[in-house]
Backbone:
């Protein structure tokens, strides 16, 4: 039941997010008045300009929460557009890019990061491919050496009687 | 020794797979559970303001929904309305937040289910992000001290609502 609900949730989220976007490509603001989420930790010292490249860099690190494997930067969904606006707003308020990323991690957990951070259990994700390639190369090297090494044939014992006969026949040759 | 190395190397891989297959990838734990709920001020579809601060001391059930979220939101809306009517006089508040929705569609949803608890849009998505919402429906049960105690992903049932709210009401304010 719960699983079915979650599936429905995911499907609804995907379909819905896109259909809203499709119906309203210009992303019109909803009609209600100003709505203030209490943005608790935005510093007061606002930076004068916003570097769009920084916005894109931060957005590229974050997962679009209603998409499959798309970053906030790449997603055309309304939710991603809202997240980009939040990134821009927080950067404009003077937060460092790392602080903005951390803000989303605080809210969503590290799941929001497209690339897991390099610590603890996550190290496995980063190390496993390198280790796998190294182990694979080592195995191939060992096998290649084994297969290409010339095999020394074991000396077959010769029957003394046969040896004697051969010697005799050789001697009897004119 | 070498003969066993390759078969043995499969063991950690199998262990990892055994762990991975037992984890539900859709079940994303929220880091917010146990932490103070983010304050918000929302203007409802009726034009009145509702804020978390004004509800301090009450158990708050904060429900994120959308009119396009079918069937889960359509399943839980009657349950939320029933539960709200049952508990509204017992220091319990229900607040609905329509996310990524069109105002007309959201209003129709409210009218269709005769929702009488306050419902508001989240036009810039800030409240959704403050609560780490990644889909609908998602529901947060906030205790009387303003702390998030449970995040329900998927439809809320009468039983789940009653169970959680009774627990929170049983705690000292």
Residues:
């Amino acid at each position: 039941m719960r699983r079915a609900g979650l599936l429905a949730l995911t499907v609804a989220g995907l379909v819905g997010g896109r259909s809203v976007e499709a119906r309203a490509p210009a992303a019109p603001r909803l009609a209600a008045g100003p709505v203030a989420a209490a943005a608790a930790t935005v510093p007061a010292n606002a930076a004068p300009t916003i570097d769009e490249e920084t916005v894109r860099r931060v957005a590229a690190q974050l997962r679009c929460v209603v998409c499959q494997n798309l970053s906030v930067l790449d997603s055309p969904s309304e939710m991603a557009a809202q997240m980009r606006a939040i990134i821009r707003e927080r950067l404009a308020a003077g937060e460092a890019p790392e602080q903005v990323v951390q803000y989303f991690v605080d809210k969503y957990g590290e799941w929001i990061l497209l690339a897991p951070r390099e610590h603890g259990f996550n190290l496995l994700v980063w190390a496993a491919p390198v280790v796998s390639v190294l182990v694979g190369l080592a195995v191939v090297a060992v096998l290649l050496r084994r297969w290409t090494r010339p095999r020394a044939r074991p000396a077959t014992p010769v029957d003394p009687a046969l040896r004697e006969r051969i010697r005799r026949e050789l001697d009897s040759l004119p | 020794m070498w003969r066993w190395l390759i078969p043995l190397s499969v063991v950690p891989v199998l262990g990892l797979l055994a762990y991975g297959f037992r984890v539900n990838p859709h079940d994303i734990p929220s880091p917010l559970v146990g932490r103070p709920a983010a304050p918000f001020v929302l203007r409802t579809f009726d034009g009145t303001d509702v804020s978390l601060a004004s509800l301090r001391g009450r158990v708050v059930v904060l429900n994120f929904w959308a009119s396009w979220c079918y069937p889960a939101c359509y399943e839980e809306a009657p349950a939320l309305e029933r539960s709200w009517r049952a508990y509204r006089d017992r220091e319990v508040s229900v607040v609905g937040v329509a996310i990524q929705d069109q105002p007309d569609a959201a209003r129709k949803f409210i009218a269709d289910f005769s929702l009488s608890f306050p419902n508001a849009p989240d036009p810039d998505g800030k409240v959704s992000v403050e609560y780490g919402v990644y889909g609908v429906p998602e529901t947060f049960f906030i205790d009387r001290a303003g702390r998030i105690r449970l995040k329900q992903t998927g439809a809320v049932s009468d039983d789940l609502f009653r169970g959680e709210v009774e627990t929170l009401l049983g705690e000292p304010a």
In short: The radius of gyration of chain B is 20 Å. Chain B touches chain A through 52 residues (CB under 8 Å). The mean pLDDT of chain B is 94.
